[in-house]
Amino acid sequence: MQNSEALALTAVLLAAAGELTQRINDGVVARGFEARPAYGFAFTRLAPGGATVTELGVHLGVTKQAASQLVEELVRKGFVERRPHPEDARARLIVLTERGWECTRAAEEAAAEVVRAWTDVLGEGEVRALCDQLARIAPNGPIRPAW
């Protein structure tokens, strides 16, 4: 693959990721949630069972201070809450509230709409193949913004 072809591939992958992120966020907002894309990236780390601010910062690729600011914002909006950490008395576990889970479900619905639109263009088999191929390249993420 020539350098120009590789650059074109990276450009379309980044454009697709950016469009996907924006369309999911637009769908979340249309469903009544005041959100921004950073919330979804945080929720992907918090959803399994919560995380500390430090763990969230590592996941997002930001400082502990930036992660703390995001958590403060999410707490104010009712998406997350702080709980005592079950294994570390010095730490607090950040977990999704019911409102946070509702927002997550709204994001899942919006993502499904985007993928359906891709299926209309490419066909179901091509979208499945695309998913399989991309999973081979980046099987474990990370799922975070490119700040």
Descriptive account of the structure:
- The protein has 147 residues and is mainly alpha-helical.
- Helix content is 67%, strand content 7%.
- The protein contains six helices and two strands, in the order ααααββαα.
- The protein has helices at 3-30, 37-46, 53-60, 64-76, 98-122, 124-137, and strands at 80-84, 92-96.
- A hairpin with a 7-residue loop joins strand 1 and strand 2.
- The longest helix has 28 residues, at 3-30.
- The two termini are 28 Å apart.
Count of discrete alpha- or pi-helical segments spanning 4 or more residues: 6
Give me the secondary-structure category.
Answer: mainly alpha
The separation of the N and C termini measures 28 Å
> Could you say which overall geometry the principal axes of the C-alpha atoms support?
globular
